[in-house]
Design brief:
Elements lengths: L5 H15 L5 H14 L5 E4 L6 E4 L2 H8 L12 E4 L2 E4 L1 H14 L2 H20 L1 E4 L6 E4 L1 H23 L1 H32 L3 H13 L34
Antiparallel strand pairs: 1-2, 2-4, 3-4, 5-6
Helix pairs in contact: 2-4, 2-6, 5-6, 7-8
């Protein structure tokens, strides 16, 4: 290396050293990669494996700030960053703060992923699963206890950390939505069974129930209170109300 570039090289190495002094643990690293792969496109920002593990290089700062709802300049002062090839490169702790903001602003994809993974590991904890033997590279069956302990050790801490980033309100709203959809599906199946039973003895009643169920179904399109144009006098339907006739005395 030419001597005139030695000072620049030393400054670069010192910058990477500052980033390495802000490490994160394995669970935080897994949550970081999961969140950024789901929420941040690689042309906006991507994670490094070298020379600093879990360091985030920012390709498009304005796009990243839009995705997270936070300016990079407002990150905590104790979170280091360097400029590499003209682009900001954040320390692992700073990258973790960016991932947390991204999850808080757009929690739905994260919560859907957590539900899907928990569903998979619930089944594995009941029936076992398949794993790859590290020597033969062949699939081997695993016991339910092994799968449950694997979930507790490696998956549950990551899920809980991601949920924390999404926020309590987002978690509650998402779980209520899932519960409501599941309950609607259960009641729909139950009503279909009840209508089939009624049809055996009373076809007209069964048809009326089925028709009302389909036509009066509540959907996202008709639940909104849409303001409508007031009717003109000639557009108002005439409603005849019968009354008792008074006989003269």
């Amino acid at each position: 290396m030419p001597w005139d570039q030695a000072a620049q090289y030393d400054a670069t190495m010192a910058g990477w050293k500052r980033l390495r002094e802000e490490p994160i643990d394995q669970n935080e690293s897994s949550a970081l990669w999961t969140a950024l792969e789901l929420l941040v496109p690689s042309d906006v920002a991507e994670l490094y494996l070298t020379p600093v593990d879990d360091a985030l290089v920012v390709h498009d700062q304005s796009a990243l700030e839009s995705l997270t709802g936070q300016l990079l300049s407002t990150l905590p002062a104790d979170h280091s960053r360097v400029i590499h090839d003209g682009k900001p490169c954040l320390s692992p702790r700073a990258s973790l703060a960016v991932a947390e903001r991204a999850c808080h602003k757009n929690p739905a994809p994260i919560l859907e992923l957590i539900i899907a993974e928990e569903t998979k590991y619930r089944e594995k904890s009941k029936r076992g699963g398949l794993d790859e033997d590290w020597e033969t590279k062949k699939p081997v069956e695993t016991s339910p206890r092994y799968e449950y302990e694997f979930y507790l050790r490696w998956k549950k801490p990551v899920h809980e950390l991601l949920r924390q980033w999404c926020g309590y309100r987002s978690i509650t709203a998402h779980e209520r939505l899932l519960a409501a959809e599941a309950e609607v599906n259960r009641l729909d199946v139950l009503l279909a069974w009840a209508v089939d039973c009624i049809r055996r003895t009373n076809e007209s009643t069964a048809a009326a129930i089925e028709k009302e169920h389909e036509e009066d179904r509540i959907t996202p399109y008709n639940i909104r209170p849409v303001p409508q144009r007031p009717l003109e006098p000639h557009e108002i339907p005439v409603i005849e109300v019968p009354s008792r006739r008074r006989w003269p005395r």
